[in-house]
Amino acid sequence: MRKKLKDLIYFMLAIVIFYGLLFFFGYTCPIKALTGVSCPGCGMTRAYISIFKLNPRLAFYYHPLFPLPALIFLMYLFEDRIPQRVKKIGIILVIGLFFLVYIVRMIDPEDNIVVFRPKDSIIYMVYKEINGVVRKR
At the N or C end, where does the chain have fewer CB atoms within 10 A? Predict the structure, then answer.
């Protein structure tokens, strides 16, 4: 269990450093920056910031499944004690919930957390730049 906890701490530290670099360069989500489309986890960071500021209502607005990563963390720590079947059902349930929430939020025109803006993506900007260079020749 000690090695697991140590590995998890290193992993989380790497994620914090990675996201810190992204924020430094002006990006909040690597998937949204590249594609212009929000990922199923969009709003999760803002939800945790809101809960740390003791604003659960805003946290649930940003991402209604924000408590799940904490539960997954606990399951990871005690995975030896959890039956294999329960783990499999849990994984399927969590993935299903994330995609259900994602689809509902993507369909909702009032939701500005999950967005579909491919023309704001890095990939599209690079494509337009390359296309412009090719047409000039």
Answer: C
Q: Which residues in the chain belong to E strands, given as ranges?
A: none
Q: At 1, is the pLDDT very low, low, confident or very high (cuts 50, 70, 90)?
A: low
Q: What is the pTM of this model?
A: 0.71
Residue 109 confidence class, pLDDT cut points 50, 70, 90 = confident
Can you tell me the distance from the alpha carbon of 42 to that of 10, in angstroms, rounded to the nearest whole number? 23
Which pair of tokens denotes residue 69?
Answer: 């990563």
User: pLDDT of 9-24, one tens digit each?
Assistant: 888 899 888 878 877 8
CB 38 within 8 A of CB 113: yes
For 44, the token pair is 């999760």
Asked if 93 and 71 count as a contact pair (C-beta separation under 8 A), the reply is no
Per the DSSP assignment, residues forming a β-bridge with 37 are: 116
DSSP letter (8 states) at residue 2: H
| Separation of alpha carbons 14 and 53, rounded Å | 24
* CA gyration radius, the chain: 19
